[in-house]
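so my prof wants the structure for this chain in the tokens format not the other one, which i didnt know existed until like an hour ago. anyway here's the sequence
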Amino acid sequence: MIELRIHGRGGQGAVLAGNILAAAMALEGRHVVAIPSFGFERRGAPVASFLRFDTREIRQFTNIYAPDCVLCIDPTVGRAVNVFEGIKDDAVWVQTTAKPLPELQFSEKIATVGLCDAVAIARDIFGRSITNTIMLGAFARTTGYVSLAALRAATEESAFRDAGLKQNLEGLARGYEETVVHHIERRVAA
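here's what i got, hopefully its the right format
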């Protein structure tokens, strides 16, 4: 079973991103549990969404405290909460940022990093910094856990329908194409 925690801020669509990702994985035949967490429920406050997926039935419905993967759809949320809290060894981190890897600080438990300048892409496509679908493309590119085709199909069936559908499909594609994936060599103590 793979466990994912999505971090964002209220109004950015972290919960919607989790729902779209869950639908995409279900389309590919996986068992999925999406768990939203709304917290303060106000625009700009840190929020999290959780997802479990597996090839077998899932019976666990609690929040995720030890994720295999962390997806951050906001470049500043890491200043408000510890996005690496509880992560497992050899975890995956997918982050929206314009910074290159050497300028970022992250947990030594991270083995794979996917970086996408989703804010710039969002401003280009939407005229504002709503990055959720862009970062779903980045997640697909970084992890290979879900195909871009399944994400497209799930997005087409989502809340967007006609309003913004074309732009969100473009965001998915650009997030996938413009993500840079880094594999981190872990230092082994002598």
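also thought this was worth mentioning. The chain has a mean pLDDT of 90.
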